[in-house]
Amino acid sequence: RRLVDALDRDGIALVDDFGLDPISLDAVEAQARAAVAARDHRNVSVASDGRVVTARLPLPALEPLLANRTLAAAAAAYLGADAVSLDGYKATLLAADDASDAYIASLWHHDRVGKRLKLFLFLHDVHCEHGHPTLVAARSHALHYFRSDSFAASRFTDAFVRANFPVITACGPRGGGFLFDTHSIHKGTPVGAHTRLTVI
What we know:
Blueprint: H1 2-10, E1 12-15, H2 22-38, E2 44-47, E3 52-55, H3 63-66, H4 69-79, E4 91-94, E5 108-109, E6 117-122, E7 134-137, E8 155-156, H5 158-164, E9 167-170, E10 177-181, E11 186-187, E12 196-199
Antiparallel strand pairs: 1-10, 2-3, 3-4, 4-12, 5-8, 6-10, 6-12, 7-9, 7-11
Helix pairs in contact: 1-4
């Protein structure tokens, strides 16, 4: 219930531990690292001179998380039982650098899909300042938009967001992460002294 309460209130639920055992977590990390290193142009995208790598390749070790009943129940309670389906996952690596010139997710935005949940699994500790944390404008998931049919209509200035919403920094320990409504206004942090490898 804690997950659903946080989602209802803020649009995001921070999770210290998604329940993967150490062997499974090691296996997910190894598969994710292999995926982002593959540089298979059919399934792996590379931007910002290699500083942002996203791989959409199978991660079999992720299956226990995908079958987690607590997460499934929380998603059904938040979205409605008939609305829950798994659309896919990806491994994303952000280098220890400034990736802002080609990291479009570093702009404040919502995903233009209405109410939808996205989960981030941290494959190492994500530092709250230097680890490329995701930022979420709490309670912005309740907004109704006049239009969202264009890129520009779904982007927001930093000044607007910080003047109107408390900002939650999504960081934390390996094996944890967060679950959030992508109708919330959110952004990635392109500058970081540490690399960040996550499964989304």
